[in-house]
Amino acid sequence: MTNKPQSLAQSDSQRYNTELNILRGELLDLFSRLAYQEGDFVLSSGLRSSYYVNKTQVTLHPQGALLIGQIIFSMLPTDTEGVAGLTLGADPIVTAVSIISAQEKRPIPALIIRKEAKGHGTKAYIEGPSLPAGAKIVVLEDVVTTGQSAMKAVTRLRDAGYTVEQVISLVDRLQGGAELYQSAGLKFAAIFSITEIQQRFRELGV
């Protein structure tokens, strides 16, 4: 009798993982077709690059936002009480995840971290619902290069009394961000590495 429920659980898990892999493949195609560009670029970190990931082409795309919300929601720890990110890049990401969480009957509020405190009203760095002290927040990022942007969000959230233990990114450029998070005691996961996007870009012949 004990084997049947276990078999069903394994079957459900396999089906769930298969569905996630399909979603991930669709999102990879969107990034490769719409966001990845080659040329001569200066990044927000100040570094020069022979390629650029124009992430808003995907994060503000209706299908892209849906896929991002579904995939990141599946990556969140079960005790997550909020998702947050540094404006502007993370704004559509945290929103998409929060909407999917409501559809999944596990509502998770979204917070947006300003780069500078607003000069009026509450003069706050953090916009969004007020959460209990110590609430567990996962920081979301669009593209990680050096990792400094997400660390600003982590610092602001911790200063506000929240608990932050993990950063999740859409894309890891493999240029030191993961190592920075590890040195700060943070878990890190990315949906894609830049090499995956580059490989798919070549396969599609975009």
TrEMBL record:
This is Orotate phosphoribosyltransferase. The lineage of its organism: Bacteria, Bacillati, Cyanobacteriota, Cyanophyceae, Nostocales. The keyword Transferase applies. The keyword Glycosyltransferase applies. Belongs to the purine/pyrimidine phosphoribosyltransferase family. PyrE subfamily. InterPro entries: OPRT, Or_phspho_trans_dom, PRTase-like, PRTase_dom. Pathway: Pyrimidine metabolism; UMP biosynthesis via de novo pathway; UMP from orotate: step 1/2. It catalyses: orotidine 5'-phosphate + diphosphate = orotate + 5-phospho-alpha-D-ribose 1-diphosphate.
